[in-house]
Specification:
Blueprint lengths: L1 E3 L2 H13 L4 E6 L5 H13 L2 E6 L19 H10 L4 E3 L3 H4 L20 H4 L3 H16 L3 E5 L3 H13 L5 E5 L19 H6 L2 H14 L5 H14 L3 E9 L12 E10 L2 E10 L3
Helix pairs in contact: 6-7, 9-10
The site of pantoate (PAF) has 10 residues, from strand 2 and helix 6.
């Protein structure tokens, strides 16, 4: 598996594959690869003859005071994992390849509506950063399919909308969240947790699960469930940022017609910010 750093080299390699009629499946990442990323690569192999992964810690999607500087960069380990997973190519550009005129002067892709609540409210500018870099990567790789984890559920919907609105001829495939045995969703940020915080972290998933179970048993007072979720997280030593029940397809507040919801939560445990979600069908 080769690692390419320039867009020119990437395009030339991909051109050969495209001329040979190979379908290209793309897995964009920020590196520090774990089993959740490798599940994306596994799925990618079902959808394309060639699997291209990218590693780029995208400065545009980090706000001031966030963890851009300390985000784990583990290229050699990631290359070994991708090779073992039998990916065909890694694109690992420097910031200047992606933003040649600098971050401030770069054109941006905005996805209004979907980007504004929840993560978008807590992390202003985050989804413009995500949509911009994913649009640029789609233009560079021109994949037939691209795979994203459901762990970042709002991001998945934002990217789907961006790809549809900008007419990218790419199929977006969602891959279920991979969890530790105790329920904690895999995330590169889990590595920031102290031993004591790691022991407490599964409470995030357990709290989402309890809320989903109540919905499955017929509870429909969404505001009360949200409040109970926030209180449970705070009582367990988290600082809850949001605990929200939304329509799974639009992220709008659910109505009596809503068939499926997603329960999304963000909470801080010490200095680490964790997010997770669960979907639940509402039986009428
Ligand atoms: O989910 C991620 O790792 C990133 O947000 C993405 C989609 C690779 C864009 O930088």
């Amino acid at each position: 598996m080769r690692t390419l750093e320039s867009v020119t080299a990437l395009r030339s390699r991909l051109q050969d594959w495209r001329q040979a009629g190979d379908r290209i499946a793309f897995v964009p990442t920020m590196g520090n690869l774990h089993a959740g990323h490798l599940a994306l690569v596994e799925q990618a192999k079902q959808h394309g003859r060639r699997v291209v992964a990218s590693i780029f810690v995208n400065p545009m999607q980090f706000g001031p005071g966030e963890d851009f500087e300390r985000y784990p960069r583990t290229l050699a380990q990631d290359q070994a994992r991708l090779k073992a997973a039998v990916a065909d190519l890694l694109f690992a550009p420097a910031v200047a390849q992606i933003y040649p005129a600098g971050l401030e002067r770069a054109s941006r892709v905005e996805v209004p509506g979907l980007s504004e609540a929840l993560e978008g409210e807590k992390r202003p500018g985050h989804f413009a950063g995500v949509a911009t870099v994913v649009a640029k990567l789609f233009n560079m790789v021109q994949p037939d399919v691209a795979l994203f984890g459901e762990k970042d559920y709002q991001q998945l919907l934002v990217i789907r909308r961006m790809a549809a609105d900008l007419c990218f001829p790419v199929e977006i495939i969602a891959v279920p969240t991979v969890r530790e045995a105790d329920g904690l969703a895999l995330s590169s940020r889990n590595g920031y947790l102290s031993r004591a915080e790691r022991a407490r972290a599964p409470v995030l998933y357990q709290t989402l699960r309890q809320s989903a179970d109540r919905l499955a048993r017929g509870a429909r007072d969404f505001a009360a469930l949200e409040e109970a979720g926030r209180e449970a997280l705070d009582a367990a030593g988290f600082a809850a940022e949001y605990f929200a029940i939304r329509a799974a397809d639009t992220l709008a507040p659910p109505t009596p017609q809503t068939a499926e919801v997603v329960i999304l939560a963000a909470a801080r445990l010490g200095t680490t910010r964790l997010i997770d979600n669960i979907r639940q069908v509402l039986v009428k």
